[in-house]
Every structure is written in C-alpha cells, then in structure tokens.
Predict the structure of Rod-binding protein.
Amino acid sequence: MTILDPSLPRPGGDNPAADPVYAAKATKAAVEFESFFIANMLKQMRAGTREMASDDSVFKDPVNRDMQDMADGMVATQMAGQRAFGIADAILRQLLPAPLNKTK
C-alpha cells in the first residue's frame, strides 16, 4: 500500500484524484520526488567536481564534504519547493484533474 494508491476507497467518491487529501499527498510526494531528483543531480555534479579538483582544493577536503553534502540537500529542497525544474508539476498533471492541479 502506498500513499498514492488510487485503488483505495476515498471520501471524494468515484474520482480519487478529486479528494483534497489525495491532492495534498500527491503534491507532497511530487515535490519530494523533485527534491530527490535534484539532490541526486547535485550529488553527481559534486562527485565530478571532486574527481577533477586538485589535491589541495577545498572540494577534496574530507572535512568540508559533509557540510557540502548537507548544503546540497538544502538547496535541492528549496529548489523543489519552488518547483524550479517542473518535475513535480509534470507528475501532478498526470495524477490530478485540471481544477486541482495547481501547477505553474
């Protein structure tokens, strides 16, 4: 069972996507997926930067690595909250009917 399982009975009637609880959960999940996507993209970009950096670079310093990773995660969360890449919007267009899908 998932939080977005459309086969579950919903108080919204025959159309589970019309249920505001479903819409809220779908929106939250879509934004979290966009955050996950952006975080993984930043992680891969950071790994490439670390590989190309010289030995005395701040990017190679293991002391800074945890803070950089945490900052990348926070950037990903903020960007996803603003729906910067449009991934959440694309997912919501598939899951929600037009009146409920408040995409940009």
Q: What stands out?
A: The mean pLDDT is 82. DSSP finds three helices and no strands in the chain. The CA atoms of residues 29 and 88 lie 8 Å apart. The two ends are 30 Å apart (CA to CA).
